[in-house]
Amino acid sequence: MKILIGTNKGLITYQKTKSDWRQVGVDFIGLPISMLHEDKRSNTWWVGISHGHWGQKLHRSTDFGKTWTEASTPKYPADTLIKPGIPATLQLIWSIMNGGDDQPGRLYVGTEPGGLFVSNDNGDSWQLNEGLWQHPSRMEHWFGGGRDHAGIHSICIDPRDSRHWYVGISCAGVFETLDDGASWQPRNSGVRADYLPDPHVPVGQDPHRLLLCKNHPDVLWQQNHCGIWRSTNGGANWADVTAEDKLANFGFALALDHKNPERAWVVPAVSDYVRVAVNEALCVCRTEDGGKTWQALRSGLPQAHCYDIVYRHSLDRHEDMLVFGTTTGNVFISENNGDDWSALSHHLPKVNVVVVI
């Protein structure tokens, strides 16, 4: 088993030994890693790189990280506009997802400024999904949150139907397609945007992370700028499951138990411009009842003078193991579903993404 950690200064790999975890590799040293993905269909690892000089790059490995080759990078068609007078150029590779088992070679890349790209040849070429880009809400109602423009950070594929996808867009909301991306509908009923004059707008919501429960795919969760929401009917309606004491509230990261649709984990932070651990104490919150109640898990995590937060892709789960990395380069691991934590490292660069292989 391996843990891939994408940082601002390269890709760090840890491997499980008989007694502990050991760092076994560093790739792309000095370069910011924006995204990681494992395509289990072909045992291909994907890395998105936000190069300061050369821009956004994609690399892939078909030998479990021993060697990497550069793949083609999505490009916006000429004359494509974000807003009137603002040309669309690739700003960030923010999500990577593979298609279903019945779509060999199908890959998706979500980007800033809000474009979803599709490949049917394992990343050798990319096409902008025009159905989403031309959605009538985009020009007027999509906007940047913490970044300059709207961005697609989450892509979810229904395991029952590879033509059925969801995307999470900051700031726009959750969108769904039932026809392989030809048409899209917003799915934000019940979600609230406290920062807007009308908090209940159908488009303009800010999901920070969207996940679909793979064994119960009508159940979706989102960690949102304004709380935590859960849907049990495929996104048609959302219920606010923010903790009553407001600890499990604002945050970015989210993990699910795909066997148990009632179980999820989030990492709380102080909202808006502050963005540090709540009360300067790091914790992970877990629910066992679909968000009705939340338990703060703190054993082994720093409880004083802690300013860490965990970005949206920097928490991952495999069986009973959870791993997360923070903005200050700390990486923590739990092998009992979050009850107890230990430090994997205190000395990494800022962590952008964590994937357990």
Explain what this protein looks like in three dimensions.
Helix content is 2%, strand content 41%. The protein has two helices and 30 strands. The longest helix is centred in the middle third of the chain and has 4 residues. It is globular. The mean pLDDT is 97.
Largest sheet: 4 strands, antiparallel
Count of DSSP-assigned helices: 2
Question: Which geometry do the CA atoms define?
Answer: globular
Regarding CATH, which class?
Answer: Mainly Beta
Uncertain stretches of 5 or more adjacent residues: none
Q: Quaternary arrangement of the chains shown?
A: single chain
Topology:
Layout: E1 2-7, E2 10-16, E3 21-27, E4 33-39, E5 44-51, E6 55-61, E7 69-71, E8 81-83, E9 86-87, E10 92-98, E11 107-112, E12 116-119, E13 127-128, H1 130-133, H2 138-141, E14 151-157, E15 165-170, E16 173-177, E17 185-186, E18 207-212, E19 220-224, E20 227-231, E21 239-240, E22 251-256, E23 264-268, E24 284-287, E25 295-297, E26 315-318, E27 321-325, E28 331-334, E29 342-345, E30 351-356
Antiparallel strand pairs: 1-2, 1-30, 2-3, 4-5, 5-6, 6-7, 8-9, 10-11, 11-12, 12-13, 14-15, 15-16, 16-17, 18-19, 19-20, 20-21, 22-23, 23-24, 24-25, 26-27, 27-28, 28-29
Characteristics of this structure?
mainly beta; 357 residues; 4-stranded antiparallel beta sheet
